[in-house]
Amino acid sequence: MSVRPAGAGRTDNGRASDRRSRRPDPGTRSGPPRNRRRLTSDRLAPYILVAPAVLIIVAFRLWPLALGINFSFTGDLDRDGQPVGLANYIELFRDPLFQIALRNVGLLVLLLPVAVAIPGALATFIFLRVPGHRFYRSVYFFPAVLSPVIAGAIFNLLLAYNGPLNRLIGTVGLGPIDWLGDPKLAMFTVVGVHIWATFGMALVIFLAGFATLDHALLDAARVDGASLPQVIWHVILPGLSRTIQFVVVTTMIGLLTSMFALLYVMTSGGPGGATYLPEYYIWVQMGQMNRPALASAASTVLFFIMLVVGLVQVAILRRAGRED
Protein backbone atom coordinates (compact mmCIF):
# COMPACT_ATOMS: atom_id res chain seq x y z
CA MET A 1 0.00 0.00 0.00
CA SER A 2 1.60 3.21 -1.14
CA VAL A 3 1.30 6.43 0.83
CA ARG A 4 0.96 9.65 -1.11
CA PRO A 5 3.14 12.49 0.02
CA ALA A 6 1.33 15.45 1.50
CA GLY A 7 0.18 17.80 -1.16
CA ALA A 8 0.42 15.19 -3.87
CA GLY A 9 -2.59 15.27 -6.05
CA ARG A 10 -3.40 18.95 -5.45
CA THR A 11 -4.30 20.73 -8.55
CA ASP A 12 -3.01 24.08 -9.70
CA ASN A 13 -6.37 25.56 -8.81
CA GLY A 14 -5.90 24.36 -5.21
CA ARG A 15 -2.47 25.98 -4.96
CA ALA A 16 -3.82 29.20 -6.41
CA SER A 17 -6.64 29.23 -3.89
CA ASP A 18 -4.11 28.71 -1.07
CA ARG A 19 -2.08 31.63 -2.29
CA ARG A 20 -5.20 33.81 -2.45
CA SER A 21 -6.16 32.77 1.09
CA ARG A 22 -2.69 33.76 2.34
CA ARG A 23 -2.83 37.13 0.53
CA PRO A 24 -3.38 40.00 3.03
CA ASP A 25 -6.75 41.71 3.01
CA PRO A 26 -6.39 45.13 1.43
CA GLY A 27 -8.73 46.52 4.13
CA THR A 28 -6.44 45.45 6.98
CA ARG A 29 -3.57 47.46 8.40
CA SER A 30 -0.95 45.02 7.09
CA GLY A 31 -0.65 46.96 3.84
CA PRO A 32 2.44 48.87 2.77
CA PRO A 33 3.47 51.75 5.09
CA ARG A 34 3.08 54.25 2.25
CA ASN A 35 -0.59 53.36 1.79
CA ARG A 36 -1.19 53.62 5.54
CA ARG A 37 0.41 57.07 5.65
CA ARG A 38 -1.72 58.19 2.70
CA LEU A 39 -4.88 56.90 4.34
CA THR A 40 -4.02 58.67 7.59
CA SER A 41 -3.30 61.96 5.83
CA ASP A 42 -6.57 61.73 3.91
CA ARG A 43 -8.46 61.29 7.15
CA LEU A 44 -6.68 64.17 8.88
CA ALA A 45 -6.88 66.63 5.97
CA PRO A 46 -10.45 67.88 6.69
CA TYR A 47 -9.64 68.46 10.36
CA ILE A 48 -6.45 70.34 9.49
CA LEU A 49 -8.32 72.60 7.07
CA VAL A 50 -11.10 73.34 9.57
CA ALA A 51 -8.77 73.80 12.55
CA PRO A 52 -7.89 77.52 11.95
CA ALA A 53 -11.56 78.52 11.73
CA VAL A 54 -12.41 76.46 14.80
CA LEU A 55 -9.57 78.05 16.76
CA ILE A 56 -10.70 81.54 15.77
CA ILE A 57 -14.29 80.81 16.78
CA VAL A 58 -13.20 79.33 20.11
CA ALA A 59 -10.73 82.14 20.86
CA PHE A 60 -12.85 85.12 19.82
CA ARG A 61 -16.43 83.85 20.24
CA LEU A 62 -16.91 80.92 22.59
CA TRP A 63 -14.21 81.79 25.12
CA PRO A 64 -15.37 85.42 25.59
CA LEU A 65 -18.96 84.13 25.80
CA ALA A 66 -17.96 81.71 28.54
CA LEU A 67 -16.10 84.48 30.39
CA GLY A 68 -19.12 86.78 30.15
CA ILE A 69 -21.46 84.13 31.51
CA ASN A 70 -19.04 83.41 34.35
CA PHE A 71 -18.68 87.15 35.08
CA SER A 72 -22.47 87.49 35.39
CA PHE A 73 -22.30 85.44 38.60
CA THR A 74 -19.98 87.95 40.31
CA GLY A 75 -20.81 91.16 42.15
CA ASP A 76 -20.63 94.87 41.34
CA LEU A 77 -19.71 97.99 43.30
CA ASP A 78 -18.81 97.06 46.90
CA ARG A 79 -18.94 93.32 46.04
CA ASP A 80 -16.78 93.66 42.96
CA GLY A 81 -15.50 90.27 41.80
CA GLN A 82 -17.09 88.31 44.63
CA PRO A 83 -19.31 85.32 43.73
CA VAL A 84 -22.98 86.25 44.20
CA GLY A 85 -24.75 83.30 42.58
CA LEU A 86 -28.02 84.27 40.90
CA ALA A 87 -28.28 87.66 42.63
CA ASN A 88 -27.67 89.58 39.39
CA TYR A 89 -30.36 87.66 37.54
CA ILE A 90 -32.86 88.13 40.38
CA GLU A 91 -32.18 91.88 40.39
CA LEU A 92 -32.36 91.93 36.62
CA PHE A 93 -35.83 90.42 36.36
CA ARG A 94 -37.10 92.66 39.16
CA ASP A 95 -35.95 95.81 37.36
CA PRO A 96 -38.96 97.55 35.70
CA LEU A 97 -36.76 98.82 32.86
CA PHE A 98 -35.57 95.33 32.00
CA GLN A 99 -39.16 94.08 32.14
CA ILE A 100 -40.07 96.77 29.59
CA ALA A 101 -37.10 95.66 27.47
CA LEU A 102 -38.35 92.06 27.50
CA ARG A 103 -41.86 93.17 26.53
CA ASN A 104 -40.37 95.11 23.64
CA VAL A 105 -38.54 91.94 22.55
CA GLY A 106 -41.95 90.23 22.34
CA LEU A 107 -43.17 93.17 20.25
CA LEU A 108 -40.22 92.74 17.88
CA VAL A 109 -41.06 89.05 17.45
CA LEU A 110 -44.62 90.01 16.50
CA LEU A 111 -43.38 92.65 14.04
CA LEU A 112 -40.83 90.29 12.47
CA PRO A 113 -43.20 89.02 9.71
CA VAL A 114 -43.69 92.63 8.60
CA ALA A 115 -39.94 93.25 8.56
CA VAL A 116 -39.47 90.15 6.34
CA ALA A 117 -42.55 90.59 4.15
CA ILE A 118 -41.65 94.13 3.01
CA PRO A 119 -38.31 93.26 1.33
CA GLY A 120 -39.78 89.96 0.14
CA ALA A 121 -42.69 91.68 -1.61
CA LEU A 122 -40.47 94.35 -3.14
CA ALA A 123 -38.00 91.72 -4.35
CA THR A 124 -40.89 89.81 -5.93
CA PHE A 125 -42.00 92.85 -7.90
CA ILE A 126 -38.45 93.52 -9.04
CA PHE A 127 -38.07 89.86 -10.05
CA LEU A 128 -41.27 90.12 -12.12
CA ARG A 129 -39.63 93.04 -13.94
CA VAL A 130 -42.21 95.72 -13.32
CA PRO A 131 -41.54 98.93 -15.27
CA GLY A 132 -38.59 100.75 -13.72
CA HIS A 133 -37.38 97.75 -11.74
CA ARG A 134 -33.73 98.74 -12.15
CA PHE A 135 -34.41 102.18 -10.70
CA TYR A 136 -36.40 100.71 -7.82
CA ARG A 137 -33.58 98.28 -6.99
CA SER A 138 -31.17 101.19 -6.50
CA VAL A 139 -33.65 103.29 -4.54
CA TYR A 140 -34.60 100.46 -2.20
CA PHE A 141 -30.98 99.67 -1.39
CA PHE A 142 -29.92 103.29 -0.82
CA PRO A 143 -30.99 103.49 2.89
CA ALA A 144 -28.75 100.50 3.69
CA VAL A 145 -25.64 102.62 3.04
CA LEU A 146 -26.71 105.33 5.48
CA SER A 147 -25.33 105.40 8.98
CA PRO A 148 -28.01 104.66 11.63
CA VAL A 149 -27.07 107.96 13.28
CA ILE A 150 -27.80 109.84 10.04
CA ALA A 151 -31.07 107.96 9.53
CA GLY A 152 -32.13 108.71 13.10
CA ALA A 153 -31.29 112.40 12.74
CA ILE A 154 -33.26 112.64 9.48
CA PHE A 155 -36.36 111.05 11.00
CA ASN A 156 -36.05 113.17 14.13
CA LEU A 157 -36.58 116.17 11.86
CA LEU A 158 -39.36 114.53 9.82
CA LEU A 159 -41.26 113.19 12.84
CA ALA A 160 -40.91 116.20 15.12
CA TYR A 161 -44.13 117.46 16.69
CA ASN A 162 -44.03 120.51 14.42
CA GLY A 163 -42.23 118.68 11.64
CA PRO A 164 -43.10 118.12 7.97
CA LEU A 165 -45.06 114.90 8.49
CA ASN A 166 -47.42 116.42 11.06
CA ARG A 167 -47.92 119.48 8.86
CA LEU A 168 -48.74 117.16 5.96
CA ILE A 169 -51.35 115.16 7.87
CA GLY A 170 -52.69 118.43 9.24
CA THR A 171 -53.74 119.39 5.71
CA VAL A 172 -56.30 116.56 5.76
CA GLY A 173 -57.75 117.56 9.11
CA LEU A 174 -55.79 115.23 11.39
CA GLY A 175 -54.20 116.55 14.54
CA PRO A 176 -50.43 116.41 15.12
CA ILE A 177 -49.11 113.07 16.37
CA ASP A 178 -46.32 112.83 18.91
CA TRP A 179 -44.47 110.04 17.11
CA LEU A 180 -41.51 109.89 19.49
CA GLY A 181 -43.08 111.27 22.67
CA ASP A 182 -46.06 108.96 22.99
CA PRO A 183 -45.11 105.76 24.91
CA LYS A 184 -47.63 103.78 22.85
CA LEU A 185 -46.18 104.89 19.51
CA ALA A 186 -42.49 105.49 20.11
CA MET A 187 -41.37 101.86 19.83
CA PHE A 188 -43.39 101.30 16.64
CA THR A 189 -41.84 104.45 15.19
CA VAL A 190 -38.26 103.40 15.92
CA VAL A 191 -38.88 99.88 14.57
CA GLY A 192 -40.38 101.37 11.41
CA VAL A 193 -37.31 103.54 10.88
CA HIS A 194 -35.06 100.52 11.48
CA ILE A 195 -36.95 98.47 8.87
CA TRP A 196 -36.72 101.34 6.39
CA ALA A 197 -32.98 101.69 6.99
CA THR A 198 -32.06 97.99 6.79
CA PHE A 199 -34.46 96.18 4.44
CA GLY A 200 -32.13 96.83 1.49
CA MET A 201 -29.80 94.01 2.56
CA ALA A 202 -32.69 91.57 2.92
CA LEU A 203 -33.86 92.69 -0.53
CA VAL A 204 -30.48 91.74 -2.03
CA ILE A 205 -30.63 88.32 -0.34
CA PHE A 206 -34.12 87.71 -1.70
CA LEU A 207 -33.01 88.69 -5.22
CA ALA A 208 -30.13 86.22 -4.92
CA GLY A 209 -32.65 83.57 -3.90
CA PHE A 210 -34.84 84.38 -6.90
CA ALA A 211 -31.85 83.68 -9.15
CA THR A 212 -31.92 80.04 -7.97
CA LEU A 213 -35.59 79.44 -8.82
CA ASP A 214 -36.48 76.92 -11.49
CA HIS A 215 -37.82 79.05 -14.35
CA ALA A 216 -39.38 75.98 -15.93
CA LEU A 217 -41.81 75.77 -13.00
CA LEU A 218 -42.70 79.44 -13.39
CA ASP A 219 -43.30 79.02 -17.11
CA ALA A 220 -45.39 75.89 -16.49
CA ALA A 221 -47.50 77.73 -13.92
CA ARG A 222 -48.13 80.58 -16.37
CA VAL A 223 -49.04 78.14 -19.15
CA ASP A 224 -51.50 76.41 -16.82
CA GLY A 225 -53.19 79.76 -16.23
CA ALA A 226 -52.09 80.28 -12.60
CA SER A 227 -52.72 83.75 -11.25
CA LEU A 228 -49.98 85.87 -9.69
CA PRO A 229 -51.01 85.03 -6.09
CA GLN A 230 -51.07 81.33 -6.99
CA VAL A 231 -47.60 81.54 -8.57
CA ILE A 232 -46.26 83.30 -5.47
CA TRP A 233 -47.87 80.88 -3.02
CA HIS A 234 -47.27 77.56 -4.81
CA VAL A 235 -44.03 78.19 -6.74
CA ILE A 236 -42.04 81.16 -5.41
CA LEU A 237 -42.48 80.67 -1.66
CA PRO A 238 -41.56 76.94 -1.65
CA GLY A 239 -38.57 77.67 -3.87
CA LEU A 240 -37.38 80.39 -1.49
CA SER A 241 -37.87 78.43 1.73
CA ARG A 242 -34.18 78.38 2.66
CA THR A 243 -33.73 82.02 1.71
CA ILE A 244 -36.71 82.97 3.87
CA GLN A 245 -35.23 81.02 6.81
CA PHE A 246 -31.97 82.91 6.47
CA VAL A 247 -33.67 86.32 6.19
CA VAL A 248 -35.94 85.61 9.16
CA VAL A 249 -33.05 84.68 11.44
CA THR A 250 -30.75 87.54 10.35
CA THR A 251 -33.58 90.09 10.54
CA MET A 252 -34.46 88.96 14.07
CA ILE A 253 -30.82 89.24 15.11
CA GLY A 254 -30.70 92.72 13.60
CA LEU A 255 -33.82 93.81 15.48
CA LEU A 256 -32.37 92.59 18.78
CA THR A 257 -28.77 93.75 18.40
CA SER A 258 -28.57 96.56 15.80
CA MET A 259 -31.04 99.18 17.01
CA PHE A 260 -28.87 100.84 19.64
CA ALA A 261 -27.82 103.78 17.46
CA LEU A 262 -31.41 104.57 16.47
CA LEU A 263 -32.60 104.30 20.07
CA TYR A 264 -29.79 106.53 21.28
CA VAL A 265 -30.35 109.21 18.64
CA MET A 266 -34.15 109.18 18.44
CA THR A 267 -35.45 108.46 21.96
CA SER A 268 -32.57 107.68 24.35
CA GLY A 269 -34.74 104.90 25.72
CA GLY A 270 -37.68 107.20 26.44
CA PRO A 271 -40.31 108.28 26.93
CA GLY A 272 -40.30 106.73 30.39
CA GLY A 273 -38.23 103.76 29.24
CA ALA A 274 -40.84 102.79 26.63
CA THR A 275 -38.22 102.13 23.96
CA TYR A 276 -35.78 100.14 26.06
CA LEU A 277 -34.35 97.01 24.50
CA PRO A 278 -31.87 94.60 26.15
CA GLU A 279 -28.94 96.03 24.20
CA TYR A 280 -29.78 99.58 25.32
CA TYR A 281 -30.23 98.35 28.90
CA ILE A 282 -26.80 96.69 28.73
CA TRP A 283 -25.21 99.95 27.59
CA VAL A 284 -26.87 101.93 30.39
CA GLN A 285 -25.72 99.49 33.06
CA MET A 286 -22.18 99.27 31.69
CA GLY A 287 -21.58 102.80 30.41
CA GLN A 288 -23.57 104.93 32.84
CA MET A 289 -24.14 102.90 36.01
CA ASN A 290 -20.71 101.17 35.99
CA ARG A 291 -22.24 97.77 36.71
CA PRO A 292 -20.46 95.35 34.34
CA ALA A 293 -21.60 92.19 36.13
CA LEU A 294 -25.27 93.16 35.83
CA ALA A 295 -24.64 94.09 32.19
CA SER A 296 -23.08 90.65 31.66
CA ALA A 297 -26.19 89.02 33.12
CA ALA A 298 -28.38 91.03 30.73
CA SER A 299 -26.10 90.04 27.84
CA THR A 300 -26.43 86.37 28.79
CA VAL A 301 -30.22 86.67 28.87
CA LEU A 302 -30.18 88.37 25.47
CA PHE A 303 -27.99 85.59 24.04
CA PHE A 304 -30.36 82.86 25.17
CA ILE A 305 -33.38 84.82 23.92
CA MET A 306 -31.79 85.06 20.47
CA LEU A 307 -30.86 81.38 20.54
CA VAL A 308 -34.33 80.18 21.52
CA VAL A 309 -36.17 82.52 19.14
CA GLY A 310 -33.89 81.57 16.25
CA LEU A 311 -34.26 77.83 16.81
CA VAL A 312 -38.06 78.11 17.11
CA GLN A 313 -38.28 80.17 13.92
CA VAL A 314 -36.12 77.74 11.95
CA ALA A 315 -38.16 74.77 13.21
CA ILE A 316 -41.44 76.44 12.23
CA LEU A 317 -40.17 77.39 8.78
CA ARG A 318 -38.78 73.91 8.13
CA ARG A 319 -42.08 72.32 9.10
CA ALA A 320 -43.94 74.74 6.83
CA GLY A 321 -41.54 73.90 4.00
CA ARG A 322 -42.12 70.15 4.42
CA GLU A 323 -45.89 70.64 4.44
CA ASP A 324 -45.68 72.60 1.20
From TrEMBL:
Cited SUPFAM superfamilies: MetI-like
TM spans (from-to): 44-63, 105-128, 140-161, 185-213, 246-266, 293-317
Keyword list, A-Z: Cell membrane, Membrane, Transmembrane, Transmembrane helix, Transport
Name by which UniProt lists this protein: Sugar ABC transporter permease
Spans annotated as Disordered: 1-38
Subcellular location, record wording: Cell membrane
Keyword Membrane in record: yes
Skewed-composition ranges (Basic and acidic residues): 12-26
Species classification: Bacteria, Bacillati, Actinomycetota, Actinomycetes, Micromonosporales
UniProt main location, coarse: membrane
Organism the protein comes from: Natronosporangium hydrolyticum
Chain ranges of the ABC transmembrane type-1 domain: 102-313
GTP-binding is among the record's keywords: no
Family the entry assigns: Belongs to the binding-protein-dependent transport system permease family.
Membrane topology reported for the UniProt record: Multi-pass membrane protein
GO biological process per UniProt: transmembrane transport
